[in-house]
Design brief:
The complex is a heterodimer of chains A (147) and B (176). Helices cover 84% and strands 0% of the residues of chain A. Chain A has 147 residues and is mostly helical. In chain A, helix 1 packs antiparallel against helix 4 and helix 1 packs parallel to helix 5. The longest helix of chain A is centred in the N-terminal third of the chain and has 35 residues. Chain B has 176 residues and is an alpha+beta fold. Chain B contains three helices and eleven strands, in the order E-E-E-E-E-E-H-E-E-E-E-H-E-H. In chain B, the strands form three sheets. Chain B has a five-stranded mixed sheet with strand order 4-5-1-9-10. Classes of the chains: A mainly alpha (147), B alpha+beta (176). At the A-B interface, helix 1, helix 2, helix 3 and helix 4 of A face helix 1 and helix 3 of B.
């Protein structure tokens, strides 16, 4: 019984590390996609902004300064390209380091516990995540953003 | 020597099968089912089935939760606490193994006071003792704590999303 409880705890630690690692890997992929498919990302960001502005900050729309910012955003994706480019270029290496370290740590934990319903899937996703993180970090640093 | 072959359909429940105090270890067979055998001189044996208590009510649960809360960045990256863990099982029943039976069981989806184990064929139903202990018991303490954890996690997620969007807006303002 104690062994099973220990395995469950190890599984939780592994799951926690996996979640952090895979989130960092996902951010790298999103970062790269924002370079290539910037128009799509631009639409999503504007929709998200509008949604949250309308829902939670509806009153802010009445503020002329905020309206000016929103107007400038909706002028086109050029500003966003530059913004995301600088953001993800700065964050690419730290994100890749976080992703790889956490996913490797999660793999170590997963290999120490017996098979369960999600173990195999998480191991496979961790390996894919590590490879994807390195690949997309290189791509972000090498490829110039779309204009 | 009398022999019992016990087969289970794989499931996510954290169960512990034991016979005469000895914990059974299941292995996957060629059909993908979990299987184990037990041999005994006795014609009748006592089968016990228990589930692990929820992580939210086990010993030092509060301390463990606080540690995971901070390690997982305010619970955001903490894997969820499964609903099935708030149900407890304490089954105990006798099985006659004088005819070397093959018992094929499956776990039913947990609901409060619902049946736990269901024989998968007529032969299994003959040997399996479906008594009053074959029910799920809802651990109210675990349910309450799980609800609090889930509500808190949802609020943290919403706060994080709003904070990220605010940061994005600030970043855009500075960039424009």
């Amino acid at each position: 019984m104690k062994e099973l409880l220990l395995h469950r705890r190890i599984n939780r630690v592994g799951g926690l590390l996996f979640n952090i690692g895979i989130t960092a890997a996902a951010l790298l992929v999103i970062g790269f996609l924002s370079f290539v498919f910037i128009v799509g990302i631009w639409l999503i960001v504007v929709l998200l902004l509008l949604f949250f502005v309308l829902i939670t900050l509806g009153a802010a729309l009445l503020n002329p300064e905020f309206k000016a910012v929103l107007d400038s955003i909706t002028q086109g994706p050029a500003n966003l390209v530059a913004f995301f480019a600088s953001l993800f270029r700065q964050a690419a290496i730290p994100l890749c380091a976080v992703s790889c370290l956490f996913l490797i740590a999660s793999l170590i934990f997963f290999f120490t516990i017996p098979k369960n319903s999600t173990k195999t899937a998480k191991i496979i996703i961790s390996f894919i995540g590590i490879v994807a993180s390195i690949l997309f970090m290189i791509l972000i640093l090498v490829i110039k953003p779309a204009q | 020597m009398n022999k019992l072959t016990l087969t289970l359909i794989p499931n996510k429940i954290n169960y512990v099968f034991s016979i005469e105090g000895k914990i059974l270890k299941f292995k996957k067979n060629k059909k993908g089912l979990l299987e184990t055998t037990f041999e005994s001189e006795k014609p009748e044996i006592k089968l016990d089935v228990q589930t692990l208590p929820s992580e939210l009510v086990e010993e030092k649960a509060g301390l463990h939760f606080i540690i995971f809360f901070f390690l997982s960045v305010l619970n955001i990256f903490n894997p969820s606490y499964p609903k099935r863990d708030i149900f407890e099982v304490n089954y105990s029943g006798n099985i006659n193994i004088s005819e070397n039976p093959k018992v094929f069981l499956t776990f039913i989806r947990p609901i409060d006071s619902g049946k736990v184990l269901k024989p998968q064929n007529e032969n299994s139903a003959i040997y399996f003792a479906d008594n009053e202990s074959n029910i799920y018991v809802l651990n109210k303490k675990a349910k309450r704590r799980r609800t609090i954890v889930n509500v808190f996690k949802a609020l943290t997620m919403i706060a994080t999303i709003i904070a990220l969007i605010a940061l994005l807006i600030i970043g855009l303002i500075q960039n424009i």
